[in-house]
Amino acid sequence: MPRPARAPAPDSVPAPPGATESAPPQARTYGGIDLNARKAQRREAFLQAGLNLFGTQGYRQATVRQVCREARLTDRYFYESFETLEDLLLAVYHREFDRLQHALVPTLMSSLQARQPIDGIRHGLELVFDMVEDQRVARVCWLEVLGVSARVDAEYSHRVEQFAGLLLMATRLHLPQWTPQPQQARLLGQAMIGVVVQIVTQALLQAAPPCKADRIEAALMVFEGLWMRLQTEVSAPVAIKA
Q1: pLDDT tops 80 at residue 5
Q2: For the chain, what is the domain count?
Q3: Model pTM score
């Protein structure tokens, strides 16, 4: 015998003409903090935990459970923000370089306005070496990301190209007469980044690394030499073939 049809639930009864729909319920708040803000807080806790662990014991020795313990959160919340530990590594890496880039761009632009390129380079180097005074940041950004996976290698290379492009842009703005071939410019940008990368990396690997001031001066000498070379090139008369 067929079952009788159930009466529609109260909330399924059509609203009378002219009635307006009520607004959807808002996300619950706890302690005055809404859902999105709580998610952001948890994500930040995992980023900090990742920096602490990857920057001390190393990425390859870390586990999701250790990160959760460090963040004082459960793995349920870890997977709310990250699919894998590699995702967390990349997030920490990009966060630190985003901070550097946001500080570096105004410094380079200020030197352009003042027409003092060497001062801009010095201030930029100071920002970089201030960043790596935190050994955790230096280790994550210059050592731990190397050789993890093809994906991480690609992200690392993209960042190198990004900062190389930033230096080349500043160089062209200071020296508009300089018109290198694209391949030459790309290699030069990589070489400038390589100076800094090698100084930072070697300092990480040494038991008694040079002080920050000496590292800045060494890098500055290379950049000053490059700047003098470029100035000479653009000011030299063009040879006319017979």
Answers
A1: no
A2: 2
A3: 0.81
